[in-house]
Amino acid sequence: MTILPILLTLLPYFANAANDWNKPCFQGTCSYDVAPSATSMSGSMTIGGSTKAISDITPAAGWEILGCDPNALSQDIRLVCKSSDAPSVGCDHLYENGAENTIVRLPENCLKVPFARVARAWVPADQSIPTSIAHRIMKRQDGGTPQVQALTLDTNWTAAADNQNGNVTLFVTGSTIPGEQGNATITPPSQRRSRVQRRGLDIKGLVKDIFSNSFDKNIRTTVPPIDINQKFPIFNTSTQCSGTSGASAAASVNINADAKVHAEITLGVVASGTLLPPIVDSFSLVAGLTANLDGTLNIDAALSGTLDSGLIPLFETGIPGLEIPEVFSIGPEFALNARATATLDVNVNMGIDLAYDVQKLQLVFPPTSDQPSSGSPTPRDTPLKLSVSPQVSSKGTIEAHVIPTINFGITALGGKAASATVFLNVDASAALTLTLNAQANATAQTNGTTSTGASVDGCVDVSGGVSANAGARGSFLNFFDDSTSVPIFSKNFDIFKKCFGASTGSSTKRSETAVRALPFEKRASGLSCPSSGIGSELASLAEETVSASAFQSKN
Fold this sequence. Notes:
Blueprint: H1 5-9, H2 11-17, E1 29-34, E2 42-48, E3 54-56, E4 63-65, E5 75-81, H3 86-89, E6 103-105, E7 115-122, H4 131-134, E8 148-154, E9 168-175, H5 193-199, H6 203-212, E10 226-242, E11 248-276, E12 279-301, E13 304-308, E14 312-318, E15 322-324, E16 328-344, E17 348-365, E18 374-379, E19 382-388, E20 397-412, E21 418-437, E22 449-450, H7 452-455, E23 457-473, E24 485-500, E25 527-528, E26 538-546, E27 552-553
Parallel strand pairs: 3-6, 22-26
Antiparallel strand pairs: 1-2, 2-9, 4-5, 5-8, 6-7, 7-8, 9-11, 10-11, 11-12, 12-17, 13-16, 13-25, 14-16, 15-16, 16-20, 17-18, 17-19, 19-26, 20-21, 21-23, 23-24, 24-27
Helix pairs in contact: 2-5
Pfam family, one: DUF7223
Region (Disordered): 366-388
Keywords: Signal
């Protein structure tokens, strides 16, 4: 599949962001990398500030931590310098301008977060050192050991907003493309490094460069292809009605979908701002989608009235996201939904394929004028089967949708700064409109249907469409809110139009028909027994495959 140029443009910055656990963070910048896995895209977080604003309590900075909970967000810890000569190994760096409100890098087995704020620093009464660590500590010349220190660590970034060391900037990136941003040690890519060094953390500059690139690149993604081949119920209900023989019989509406979906997804995210104070001032989400959609909708309706299934979830699966606790997280999921609406006043049996290929759908959110989101849908041949009750006046409609969706749950700075969901919908739909006039007689056939020419007078119109759009649920700072909408494409087609009986030559108004439809038998559900009765034979109006080349575009 094809990746948006945004992710390629970010590669040089990732080179500068690679984390090296062998080097202490004493120079005013520090990074943390997330390796790709079955549940996570690769990502990187970089903070920057004065040399006194950021420090390090990992072994690379000379420290040994004497116990820390890897699942906590805050904790009082004890730690000791590995050498009695603290300046030689770097332990004194933490205290150069007072340890409190300094942001420190943590070893991976200490707290759930890669960085924490020092809320308090003191010398504890407990100066004991576990034997498992003591052998790594260099003793003083007098045989004593370095003094054990204590720190209270937390992620209360707001409490350090007016600290003595100044602001700390924040830059977060993530993508589902393996190898595109280095790793959690010191192995970065090397494209156009100098350019990004000059620009630093300017996302606006990055985005401007992103869309000035005109090349595509075939890539692999850590997101496994999503494949669905399953039958799903959408709407089912039944009630007892009078049959054509006079006996009571069950009448029902059954709508289901045979869904076949193959989707390949690429994701990327970029955010920047400050950790101290906690502010996000730039954000961009990028998604690429190539998909083959094939949803066969089967509708068997023998009740009259109006129905709306509502949005029915058919399938959900998680997509590798990115979580840097208390800093930034994005949790994507792929969902397949369906919806059916109908106004029925005639028995209908219908099967229709909603089959489209979606190529190179590219979403940038929030929308940017530099690079509008884009995509290209192509319809495929559509098998169509349709049978209806003869001898009945009808103005019925059926509309059905199969909607693949990608949802992105996003939080920044532990949800204290912002939390919202971005969605990308691809809506494949079909609509049937029946305009039937009652007719006095019909000729039965041995296959359970009646002959079309003798039994049906009226017209059938089947249309279809596919559209893609993105939006948001909730607000994310001043970047977007519920009103933000990104229309990507919308294609509508006339698939099948045909008139039968007298209507092939002229249209007949409902008021001129010889036999009127019978009144509904009311049911509390809003659906009622059909005027044609239960057990009446249906007239076949269509059973063919409509070539996509025969579709008539409506826009």
